[in-house]
Design a protein that fits this description.
By secondary structure, this protein is an alpha/beta fold. It has 2 domains: 137 residues, Rossmann fold (3-Layer(aba) Sandwich); 91 residues, ProC C-terminal domain-like (ProC C-terminal domain-like fold), CATH 1.10.3730. Helix content is 52%, strand content 10%. It has a 5-stranded mixed sheet, with helices on both faces. Helix 6 crosses helix 11 and helix 7 crosses helix 8. About 14% of the residues have low confidence.
Amino acid sequence: MIHPNVLFVFHGVVTRVMCTPPSTIDDDDDDDDALGGPRDDERWRRWVCATSFCGRGEEEAKDTLFVSVAAGVTLKTMESVWTEAGDQSPAMIRVMPNTPCLVGAAASGLCEGSTCTEAHRNSALALMSSVGICKVILENQMSALTGVSGSGPAYVFILIEGMSDGGVRAGLPRDVATQLAAQTFYGAAKMVLETGKHPGVLKDSVCSPGGTTIAAVHALEQAGVRQAMMNAVVAAAERGDELAKAAAGK
């Protein structure tokens, strides 16, 4: 069951998706496909619009579940808004989603604050699971999760674009190359999730001895693609740690 009074902290793509009633979605979102399917009006009525928690006193905040999607801002930093004034912090959940929440395919992680109950955690899990998957993690793992899934869609978009460019270079029309590249990522990801097999095992199943795929894999290894992906994740994680220190005034 979703907590009846949820308040999102920090505006952005995610809060727009999670908090905007269907009747007020604008831009190009003129159908339900923007969220990957029909929206539940009761679910939308239970979620308040995104705003800042600053200035809310203990009485006003005690029945509110605060869900933060502010990158790099720790639970301790947010709770200090109340604790430094001598008040008890309300229930705080820190979430790191990603932009595929726009199509109901988010990969999110959450950690809970010092005053959260199991009910608060389950409520946030239900909330985030409505637009994808969500994992409960420790807060000291949040930067790592940011590096993998929070920033990850950008890495995948670059790889899809690169595959599409390769297809065009090899003779395919741009639209065909892009659709094939995107569908290939989708299908490969679905195989990992549904079979539970290690990606390396699935990769090996495509590589015939002396064939086209192993030649391509060799080219990827020569170009350092694996190392580049690892470096990207670590760079994003380190930047997340930097943002956390800056937010805490360290």
